[in-house]
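Quick one, probably user error.
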């Protein structure tokens, strides 16, 4: 069987480079996507964006521009088929349950094709932030990775706290910083991969 062609549909391009807030929302055809951001570990930005896509996005290829960051997507609703493309090639096509985690390494860009309505909390972690949190916690972490779809109950609870903060405008900055630091520390500890360690999952999880 011949390999599938890369990115067969015209992608929807972002109008902003940063993969959070409106920059990420526009990748999915959304306006005013709810988001919070805070500077941690110096001047590294941590951000959380709530994505709510309806059935009108089904079948559309949503492209996220390349940048030196990770996106940790906490799925909030069940989906039957969710395609993830990295560097123009299909990396994963599978369903996800609520509370499932997927980590994307955006160094070569990514694209997502939905099969229907979808809701997720996207967490934006620059590589510099991952390294800073790793160093602060005395851990040697080269990158973040997980098997796509892995259940992470701790992150699900932290995500619920982030969503509660999104509902409070303006949110408490002190509380936001604490929740953001706890979220980063958990992701680095639970899904951080040390240099020369075997890769977890496959490229869709790196």
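Nope, works fine. Designed sequence:
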């Amino acid at each position: 069987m011949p390999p599938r062609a890369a990115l067969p549909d015209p992608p929807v391009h972002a109008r902003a480079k940063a993969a959070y807030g409106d920059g990420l929302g526009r990748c999915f055809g959304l306006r005013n996507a709810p988001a919070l951001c805070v500077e941690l570990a110096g001047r590294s930005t941590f951000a959380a964006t709530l994505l709510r896509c309806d059935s009108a996005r089904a079948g559309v290829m949503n492209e996220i521009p390349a940048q030196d960051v990770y996106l940790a997507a906490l799925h909030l609703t069940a989906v039957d088929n969710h395609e993830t493309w990295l560097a123009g090639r299909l990396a994963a096509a599978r369903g996800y349950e609520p509370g499932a985690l997927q980590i994307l390494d955006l160094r070569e860009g990514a694209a997502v094709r939905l099969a229907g309505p979808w809701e997720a909390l996207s967490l934006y972690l620059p590589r510099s932030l991952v390294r800073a949190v790793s160093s602060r916690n005395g851990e040697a972490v080269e990158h973040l990775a997980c098997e796509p779809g892995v259940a992470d109950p701790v992150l699900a609870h932290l995500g619920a706290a982030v969503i509660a903060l999104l509902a409070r405008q303006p949110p408490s900055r002190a509380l936001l910083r604490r929740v953001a630091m706890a979220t980063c520390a958990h992701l680095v500890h639970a899904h951080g991969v040390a240099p020369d360690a075997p890769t977890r999952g496959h490229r869709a999880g790196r």
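Residues 1-16, 201-206 have pLDDT under 50 and may be disordered.
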